[in-house]
């Protein structure tokens, strides 16, 4: 009989823990916005082609193993990125201003998250360039929003900027935008 009481207490405790996690997650905001930037010694005209050459990114992005073109109902450029953990994310270009601005959406409504990355590239006074990426994203499930407490929402963009720096032969450290 005591084993049964112990088992019931453990089960009640687990249910309570799960309820607390889901409750905390449901109280967290669904939407977020985060920005990071780096400065390169290379001018925008040298940085831009690397950013928009999506199919070549697996050669320098350690978090992506494959990029392939995908059909788009809107006619805009669309591609699938296979991440190093096996997740496949469909992306679509929303807007582009060559050498200046690129907006890219996650184009898969079945994912538990989504949003837009806005790349803003501008020249610096020293002849280099500044690249800022802003993620306006969302996380749907409460459980995922709870897990986000322990994660850096800018981690993927910080990795992207670091890998891009390496591709350009520069050691950069992404900075938060104030």
What does this structure look like?
The chain has 178 residues and is an alpha+beta fold. It has one domain: START domain (Alpha-D-Glucose-1,6-Bisphosphate, Chain A, domain 4, 2-Layer Sandwich). It is 30% helix and 35% strand. It is built from 4 helices and 8 strands, in the order αβαββββββααβ. The protein has helices at residues 2-27, 44-52, 142-147, 155-167, and strands spanning 31-40, 64-69, 78-83, 88-97, 101-106, 113-123, 129-139, 175-176. It has an 8-stranded antiparallel β-sheet with strand order 2-3-4-5-6-7-1-8. The longest helix has 26 residues, at 2-27. It is elongated and about 75 Å long. The model has no long low-confidence stretch (mean pLDDT 91).
Supply the helix-strand structural class.
alpha+beta
Query: Radius of gyration, rounded?
Result: 20 Å
Spatial shape:
elongated
Span of the ends, CA to CA: 60 Å
Strand content: 25-35%
State the helical fraction.
Answer: 25-40%
Lateral arrangement of strands in the main beta sheet? 2-3-4-5-6-7-1-8
SSE arrangement, N to C = HEHEEEEEEHHE
**What is the annotated CATH architecture?**
2-Layer Sandwich
Could you say what the CATH topology is called? Alpha-D-Glucose-1,6-Bisphosphate, Chain A, domain 4
Assigned CATH superfamily: START domain
> Count of helical segments?
4
| Unreliable parts | none
Q: What summary fits the major beta sheet?
A: 8 strands, antiparallel
- The average pLDDT is 91
CATH class equals Alpha Beta
What would you call the quaternary organization?
single chain
- The beta-strand count equals 8
The structural domain count equals 1
